Amino acid sequence: MDTIADLRQFGGADVYLRSCPSRGVLDVIGSKWTVLIVPALIDRPLRFGELRRRLDGITQKSLTQALRQLERDGFVSRTQYPTIPPRVDYALTPLGHRVAGLLSSIRDWAQDNLVDVLTARADYDSRPAELPEQQRGRGEAP
Predict the structure, then answer these.
(1) Strand-pair partners of 47
(2) H helix intervals, the chain
(3) Which run of H or E residues covers position 92?
(4) What is the mean pLDDT of the chain?
(5) Structure confidence by residue, pLDDT tens digits, 24-58
(6) What are the phi and psi torsion angles at 128 (to 5°)?
(7) By the 8 A CB rule, do 93 and 75 touch?
(8) Could you tell me if 92 and 41 are in contact, meaning their C-beta atoms sit under 8 angstroms apart?
(9) Inter-axis angle of helices 22-29 and 32-40, to 10 degrees?
(10) Per-residue pLDDT for 81 more than 60?
């Protein structure tokens, strides 16, 4: 009997293979909005408006798309209550809780290492531009 966990038809789970479905999972968990949405839901379910206020700069469309993808992939559950006005809560599923720690660590790392990254960028950007013949000497196309 075939199950979702049976990946023999895909050659096993190997993210380095272009046909491996785990690449799609990486696309989702590597999204900047996923890295922010999932940890925001660790402590408690949130309503759409609460999430939107928490994630400064996200558009309504981007948040809607991200939440739908997270729900589709089993990271987030959506509960609609029959009230007026309608109330919808988003919460982490058990799968979402399992990835939340990892995503929180990535977010924390980005904040903790921001100065080093910005310094490296500034150093790189201040280097003199290479001439085309220098690039060709390293096997790069002109």
Answers:
(1) 89
(2) 22-29, 32-40, 48-54, 60-72, 94-112, 114-126, 132-137
(3) strand 87-92
(4) 87
(5) 899 999 999 999 999 999 999 999 999 999 999 99
(6) -65, 145
(7) yes
(8) yes
(9) 70
(10) yes
The residue type at 5: A
Identify which of 24, 1, 22 has the alpha carbon closest to the alpha carbon of residue 11.
22
Contact 123, 115 (CB under 8 A): no
Q: How confident is the model at residue 75 (pLDDT cuts 50, 70, 90)?
A: very high
The answer to whether the predicted template modeling score (pTM) of the entire model surpasses 0.90 is no
Q: Cα separation of 53 and 14, whole Å?
A: 38
Phi, psi (rounded to 5 degrees) for 93: -85, 175
45: closest CA among 34, 53, 37?
37
Contact between residue 73 and residue 25 where contact means Cβ atoms under 8 Å apart: yes
